[in-house]
Design a protein that fits this description.
This protein has an 8-stranded mixed sheet, with helices on both faces. Strands 12-11-13-17-15 form a 5-stranded mixed sheet, with helices on both faces. Strands 1-2 form a two-stranded antiparallel sheet. With 337 residues, it is of the alpha+beta class. It has 7 helices and 17 strands. Bound molecules: 2,5-anhydro-1,6-di-O-phosphono-D-glucitol and manganese (II) ion (3 copies).
Length: 337
Amino acid sequence: MKRKTLTQYLVEQQRKKQAVSAEVRLLIETVSRACKAIGHAVSKGALGGVLGSLESENVQGEVQKKLDVLSNEILLEANEWGGHLAAMASEEMETIHRIPNRYPKGEYLLLFDPLDGSSNIDVNVSIGTIFSVLHAPQHASGRDVDEDDFLQPGVRQVAAGYAVYGPQTMLVLTVGTGVVGFTLDREMGSWVLTDDNITIPEQTAEFAINMSNMRHWEAPVKRYIDDCLAGETGPLGKDYNMRWIASMVADVHRILTRGGIFMYPRDERPAGKAGKLRLMYEANPMSFIVEQAGGAAHDGSRRILDVQPTALHQRIGVILGSREEVERVRRYHQEAL
Ligand code: AHG
Ligand code: MN
Ligand code: MN
Ligand code: MN
């Protein structure tokens, strides 16, 4: 049977569940086209002159990679003319990017991590793009949108997704009606539906964490990892495997595909107090996707999607994946109170 394309999927969502307005459909199609362009640049590597770092630092205090900036520009240019957005925000931009006056404005806000896993760019390991869509109806009139309009809890997301530039280039998406996956057909240049109902196994025996931070972890995290490492004779009674790709998109994609728990917890260092990952364009979109796939996502005490943001680039601890495992870690935090 002929596989569906992204456009056909979105038209059907628009028709049957009203989960997707015409503007959101245009937005997702535009972002997916931009991800194709980013994936194309990524795949050129040294041949495209896109590897390596720039002299510049971003608001996160990270040295920017050429692809961080190029991906950011591709997403800005692709999305500013369509009339579906009031503004955009990105890991790579200190303040929000309003739609230039020469273009019509819409009611939606687009947030993105244009290139996730930057430390893997120069070593040819899977990287990705993460995006999140919020609604700001008061801006249809074009009233100047400001940063506060972006500070909405993750439960208010209209859509979220990521592209992963790996052996296959894939797009994973939710509009609040479950999670679907598309594989890029390079010959046709189209996103083809290859997973029409992605669900995360409730149980797992595979954890993902950067072990080099162990001495900084809070007690409940240490307790959980010790339990995993204790193997069959330990309290969890299972032999655990470990994976850490250091591209959140790739680690989360593995978990959506075969289960697992991903942890980038806050830690006891001053710089790690709030966690490393950014709430608005990493934790929130990934948590929306994970919950829609039947998983769970919290920061040790709070459900991530319930957190009321106070700053555009705020960081948060992230524990997400197979529901039973994530609940266990949450219980360990509660028992430590
Ligand atoms: P980004 O490249 O967008 O800055 O994000 C990198 C993040 C995330 O993708 C990954 O899970 C984490 O950083 C890896 O951190 P470590 O290098 O400390 O393991
Ligand atoms: Mn990232
Ligand atoms: Mn990034
Ligand atoms: Mn970065």
